[in-house]
Design a protein that fits this description.
The protein is of the alpha+beta class. It is built from six helices and eleven strands. The strands form four sheets. The protein has a four-stranded antiparallel sheet, with helices on one face. Strands 1-11-10 form a three-stranded antiparallel sheet, with no helix packed on it. The chain is globular, with a radius of gyration of 16 Å.
């Protein structure tokens, strides 16, 4: 059991730029890659990936059989590539202050932030277990960026069931309707599902998932 002096506000890890929030929530969700105790990059939910010869296209192969769990430890759904796409989409919509990290990095991200279409953003699930990301320029350090919280997944089916929507204006309107939009509500651990080694079980505590 890990305890913290403050609870994350909000629990939505894609809607905050606060280190005090993310240092709690990142323990409850897995990303595509991770570093081990020797500072070596290791596969996490991406069991492997391919890089095109020109360095512009990354194809991630998502590990099968990983589950999302409720705060009570009940299995909710399988983690898929669609959850990574949904997470990136939601992150761009939230205006939480971290979108600048991918501005000019992922094809179409800058245009989307300026009011363009999501269809033109090259961060897409091509099937349940394949995520394809296209970059505007070859960035040898791009894999290290994948450890940033902005690339974490969001359980697409749970998000939508909790009133989640896509599009910055649509999200702003949804948040105003507190009876409908219940995703990632501050201090409500049941408003989130988790796929990492810990579950958030209270205002400021995490329990190891066994």
């Amino acid at each position: 059991l890990l305890t913290f002096s403050t609870a994350p506000d909000p629990i939505d890890w894609l809607n905050t730029s606060s280190q005090s929030d993310t240092e709690i929530t990142v323990n409850t969700v897995e990303g595509l890659v991770q570093y081990n105790n020797l500072n070596q990059m290791q596969p996490a939910l991406a069991e492997s990936w391919d890089i095109s010869d020109d360095g512009l296209t990354y194809t991630f192969h998502i590990r099968q059989g990983v589950k999302w769990f409720t705060s009570e430890g009940t299995e909710y759904a399988e983690v898929t590539a669609h959850d990574f796409e949904a997470g990136f989409h939601h992150m761009l919509d939230t205006d939480a202050g971290l979108d600048w990290l991918v501005d000019g990095v992922v094809v179409g991200a800058t245009e989307y932030l300026e009011g363009g279409s999501w269809d033109d953003v090259a961060y897409k699930a091509t099937d349940d277990y394949t995520l394809v990301v296209e970059l505007t320029d070859a960035l040898p350090y791009f894999p290290t960026m994948l450890t940033y919280s902005i690339f974490l997944p969001l359980c697409k089916s749970f998000y939508e069931a909790q009133g989640g929507v896509y599009g910055a204006e649509e999200l702003t309107a949804a948040r105003a309707d507190t009876n409908t939009y219940k995703y990632g509500k501050s201090e409500d651990v049941a408003s989130q599902v988790y796929c990492g080694p810990f579950l958030q079980i209270g205002r400021a505590s995490c329990r190891e998932r066994v």
